[in-house]
Sequence to fold (444 residues):
Amino acid sequence: MAFENLTERLQQAMSKLRKKGKVSEADVKEMMREIRLALLEADVNLQVVKDFTKRVRERAVGTEVLDSLSPAQQIVKIVDEELTKTLGSETVELTKSPKIPTVIMMVGLQGAGKTTFAGKLAKHLMKTENARPLMIAGDVYRPAAIDQLKVLGQQLDVPVFDMGTDTSPVEIVRQGMALAREKKNDYVLIDTAGRLHIDETLMDELKQIKEIAEPNEILLVVDAMTGQDAVNVADSFNQQLGITGVVITKLDGDTRGGAALSIRSVTGAPIKFIGSGEKLTDLEIFHPDRMSSRILGMGDMLTLIEKAQQDYDEKKAEELAQKMRENSFDFNDFIEQLDQVMGMGPIEDLLKMIPGMNQMPGIENVKVDPKDVERKKAMVYSMTPAERENPDLLNPSRRRRIAAGSGNSIVEVNRMIKQFKESRKMMQQMSKGDMNIPGMDQMF
Ligand code: GDP
Fold:
């Protein structure tokens, strides 16, 4: 996830204050210098950094803070509040049309992730609102953009309106809108063309589409990896087209994240979503307060819980809890769990959303190797149904058969079964409310 270095640097700057009993104005100044450097290194816009540090400093040197019993804590709170403000203060939801369809137009440079985001958004709307969207393929310039959207449409079972690459995007949108009205789709998602750079022809075309489609939202999709350039792009799109929101993609990579921190202040347009991976489920609603908390290394339990709720089936979760209590968790459940957890994204990113976790020594070394997961799955697939349901059946000769069948050594099979039994025991204890379990730290 982005912001790793920034988080570390900010925590260092603030932890120095924590160690002091009494905090002086000079201490605050020193901390602010470090915070300023950390932000600049994360590629945050200079003016945004200046405004932010000025606000924090003014509040932090106020006597009621420095003279308080816990000045360091108060200052962390101020930093958190001001960072939230920089990110936009409030969560801004999608604007909906009072009568259907709500029209959402995606704009941005080529490769920013517009087409992918259109698919993610369609999935999100279907999941959260049972929506029936129509997607319009208006990107007639990028080779394969139309096919890409159609593939997404097939995966999601969402209709995609296209007229190939020979008709003008303006005409495509006109006809697509007519179809959506006829079919009573509640959302229309328009994927438009991007260019490598902003040019006049592109802007003219987008303005014409805007006129015809009368969108409720014009969402600018920008790539976090392009840093300050993303901010400049956002600024000019906003001036020429008037955007209603920003989507920042590719925040999963090791981007420095500065764009995410600057865009709101520079353009005034709210960030509405962030893209955190290539999969259709890798979309998060942007909440300034939660993002601030994550950047400051204080975790983001709410997003973690929502992610889990989104990806989890409640009935299944209850069944599973029951099995844990009864110690009847078997290898079939094990496989299902592996698939579900892997589907939520990299474990190391999930762990960091838990408050305090990113200060846990060794957390940066936690890596779950998908190949290892596949190996474990292969072993389970080599078991008979009876063995999967009853791990106690696994005597040495059965273990040898599983090793041969899954292409693993007997040592690996033994280790996997041992781990499975230990986890099962731990889960049973945890489900009975006993959180003080030796070996818990080894669980990952
Ligand atoms: P478009 O030209 O703006 O339509 O861009 P695409 O939707 O084709 O995306 C360009 C590339 O970025 C594709 O390879 C996508 O898989 C990838 N991509 C899009 N969003 C994300 C994201 O949030 N994270 C990562 N890692 N890749 C993304």
User: Anything to note?
Assistant: The beta strands are 102-107, 133-138, 160-161, 187-192, 217-223, 245-249, 271-275, 283-285.
